[in-house]
Every structure is written in structure tokens, then in C-alpha cells.
Amino acid sequence: MREASKNSKELLKTIADVTSKIVEWIINLAPFGILGLVFKTISDKGVGSLANYGILLVPLVTTMLFVAPVVNPLIAFFFMRRNPYSLVWNCLRVSGVTAFFTRSSATNIPVNMKLCHDLGLNPDTYSVSIPLGSTINMAGVAITINLLTLAAVNTLGIPVDFATAFVLSVVAAISAYGASSIAGGSLLLIPVACSLFGISNDIAIQVVGVGFVIGVIQDSCETALNSSTDVLFTAVAEYAATRKK
Questions:
Q1: CATH (domain of 137)
Q2: pTM listed for this prediction
């Protein structure tokens, strides 16, 4: 790119700006799409189905809500040695809300890049960490894999000790790196975790099917957690490095 002509650079910049604008339009229309998905689920399954799936949704959403305002600030404070909540809330408000509606970490990259710019972060850092984070920073995915797998194990009456649960957490965390950054990508990794307990692929796919039913809320919360922490930990890393100087 250094040897490219000025016109070529301007053309690429224009294409990038147009792409960002299209993504912004899609983000603005996303809430209507989410509303349509919820309506379709209720019309097909009935209102009563929400109560059954709610039993599974409650621990999923509760765990993610615990990680976002409790675990992440503790990690941020450990490295920054200052109150992290203004940064955490800013990331959740700007990045988390839009990611909730888009349900895609990749789609939310322009939002995160702009937020990093507004925070005054180093472009050389966030131009790498944000796209990379949208692919491998998948804390919400790890939570989903863990809880849906344990739900299947509990339903089948398979005993689980602490050591096995710990191994499951490690496998889920590693598997999350390979999760697709598009909506619903995390559910396809559940059969890998189920195989630890000898659960057949036929049953594991049924668990995936349940995940798709509750995916409107589950995937939205999951992506909000994933994408907001891309900016959060990019900022934490830079602030921590500045503190040590």
C-alpha cells in the first residue's frame, strides 16, 4: 500500500466508507428483524413455549449479565489499577447495544473501530485487535457451550464431577476460538463438547436445535458480550501499558 498511487488509496478509502455506511444502515434496521424473528417463534410455537425455553434462557442470560458488569471490571481493574466502570459502561452502551441487535461480531467491527477512535486509542493497536477480537474473543460462546452441554448432560442423568466440569470449561473456551463471528455460529460447536460425555451426535444435534429456538435472545446477549469486550480489553491493554511507563 505504501507504493500505491494516491488515486488507488482514495478509491480503497471510498469503498471502505461506503461499506461502513451500508453496515450502519443494516444496524439501524436490525431491531425490526429481531422483532420479526421473535414474532415468528411465538406464532409457530405458541406463547406457552416461551416458559419451557425460559428455564434454559434464564441461566444463560444471567451468567452473561454476571460476566459483563462483575468479572470483566475485575479483570480490567487488575491491569489498570483504577475504576473501570466508566469504560465498561461505555463499551456496553455503544458496542454492546448495537451488537445485541446485529448478532454478529464481524458486522459490529465498524462500530468498535469508531468507539476506539473516540476513546483516543492507538490506531496501530485497535486496527489489529478489533478484527482479530471479532474472530477469537468469544467469552459468550464459551458460556453458551458450557451451559447447553450441561443442560443436555443433566437431562440424560449423566453424573458430572468438578474435574469433568473443569475440562468442559477448558474445551469450551478453546473451541470458542473457532466459533464463526456470524449469528448462530457458536451452536455448531456444541457436539464437540457433548462428545466429552459420550453423547451421540443425534442427541447433540437436538441440543443445537434447541439453541436455534432460543437463539434470538441467547445469540444477541452472547454477541453483545463478545463484541463489547473487544473494545474493553483493547483499551485496558493500552491503559495498562501506559500506567507501567
A1: 1.10.3860.10
A2: 0.75
